[in-house]
Design brief:
It contains two helices and 42 strands. It is mostly beta strands.
Length: 461
């Protein structure tokens, strides 16, 4: 077969894959809408019309363009298991545009998911911009609102390859300028955020303008949360609230600095959450510019970089752990002002903070408070942790180039091969994707970056 024939076959195969299912189509010009919108020639001009015509498990493909027409208070309403996808795969090509910029008095949400089944729902490769939520009936989630009502179903909603930007929530004490999932306590419902960017969203009062997942289960993977904010002199969190159990992996939380009087965390973690291979950088708040965990258990923060965060109160610029049980494993926590507040204020709580293989140094203060029971093993910290467990050192970690923010370990670092091996490390990677534990010593390094010896040649078979 000639090289020329290969792309043709690929295109034909892709076209067949799209056309083989009873899918629906949406476009803005050049077609004559008809029937069930089952071809581009008969595509709907309104997304909602195609969604209403689609059956469970079908896909609604949206052509390039900006879409504003929808229902009275949202552009798109999904109440059955189907897939809503931008046809190019590029989220910049399909835009759901709300009124926040042109008429902020209107309440027009981007997408509402009312999932009353156990089906799978996908929203893929779409930008949701300038949407608002202020209606009294459902005042959450200006970009996307996911709700089941009072009955808990074991379904799934996945939001993939999407941009949620410039959303505004203007209802007092209601959260989610970008995305909100509110499930009943104990609900098995599963929400997935994958390869999304959530930026410059706003909430008029509190509760996480950058998104809030309440109850249920969730995975948040390869997402960026940046520059979200709440009204000045209000309370509780401008970044992202992970109130569901599950995982936050390969994410970046940065440049949150707007609003808040008492609190202002970039990410808040709920019970039974693993936060892994994430970067929390350059966030500012009153208390806890970076990570926050209050009155929760079974939280693990692993392979994360927490740096250049600030708290104006002098408490927990990098992280604030309050009446909670949290494990820090192989994190690098540097250049925060201050680094961590670890507090227990209730005699009834049994919180404990465990530190294993971390580097905690070059902060204005490493620990602005230290009143929860603490266990520490094999950490490099300029505050002496020797009273809390074995293997702790106070020596400089000797980064590659601290001034240029290259926080890898130099070849003479005392942190190399000085960690404590944990079961999760087998087959796992560090924050840069290197194998966790080198093949020669079999011992993990301290911090979020594993040192790779220069001059080593690997042969791949």
């Amino acid at each position: 077969m000639s090289a020329r024939g290969i792309p043709v076959l690929i295109i034909l195969a892709f076209s067949f894959a799209i056309a083989s299912a009873a899918d629906r189509y949406v476009a803005q010009a050049g077609q004559t809408p008809a029937g069930g919108y089952i071809s581009w020639d008969t595509a709907a001009t309104n997304i909602q019309e195609a969604l209403s015509a689609a059956a469970v498990d079908e896909t609604v493909w949206i052509s390039n363009g900006t879409y504003t027409v929808g229902l009275s208070n949202q552009i798109v309403y999904i109440n059955k298991g189907l897939k809503l996808r931008g046809c190019s795969g590029n989220r910049d090509d399909v835009i759901l545009e709300g009124p926040a910029r042109t008429d902020p008095s209107k309440s027009i949400r981007g997408i509402r998911v009312n999932s009353t089944t156990s089906d799978y729902i996908l929203v893929d490769s779409i930008t949701i911009s300038n949407c608002t939520s202020s209606d009294a009936i459902s005042p959450y989630g200006a970009g996307i609102y996911i709700n089941q009502g009072s009955v808990a179903y074991p379904g799934t909603t996945e939001v993939r390859n999407c941009l949620i930007v410039n959303g505004t929530n203007t209802t007092s004490s209601r959260g989610g300028g970008s995305i909100y999932s509110g499930q009943a306590a104990g609900s098995p419902y599963y929400v997935m955020l994958t390869n999304c960017m959530i930026a410059n969203n706003w909430s008029s009062n509190r509760n996480f303008a950058g998104g809030w997942l309440v109850n249920g289960r969730a995975s948040v993977d390869n997402c960026i949360f940046a520059g979200n904010g709440i009204t000045p002199n209000t309370d509780r969190g401008y970044g992202f609230g992970m109130g569901a159990s599950g995982t936050v992996r390969n994410c970046r939380f940065e440049n949150h600095s707007q609003g808040g009087a008492t609190w202002g965390m970039a990410i808040s973690l709920g019970k039974d959450v693993l936060m892994e291979n994430c970067v929390v950088i350059s966030n500012r708040g009153a208390n806890s510019g970076g990570i926050y965990a209050e009155s929760v258990t079974n939280v693990t923060i692993r392979n994360c970089l927490v740096s250049h965060n600030r708290a104006s109160s002098g408490n927990g610029g990098g992280g604030y752990i309050w009446n909670a049980s949290v494990n820090f494993e192989n994190c690098t926590i540097v250049s925060n002002a201050p680094a961590l507040a670890v507090r227990q204020t209730s005699a009834a709580t049994t919180g404990i903070c465990v530190f294993v293989n971390n580097i905690i140094c070059s902060n204005t203060i490493n620990f602005s408070s230290f009143s929860i029971p603490v266990r520490a093993t094999n950490n490099c910290c300029s505050t002496d942790l020797g009273a809390y467990g074995p293997g702790n050192i106070t020596a400089s970690p000797r980064f590659v180039n601290f001034g240029e923010r290259d926080l890898g370990l130099s070849s003479d670092s005392p942190c190399i091969n000085q960690g404590y091996n944990l079961p999760w490390m087998d087959g796992n990677n560090d924050l840069d994707g290197r194998t966790r534990k080198d093949i020669f010593s079999g011992v993990v390094d301290m911090g979020c970056y594993e040192h790779l010896l220069r001059g080593v040649v690997f042969r791949l078979h």
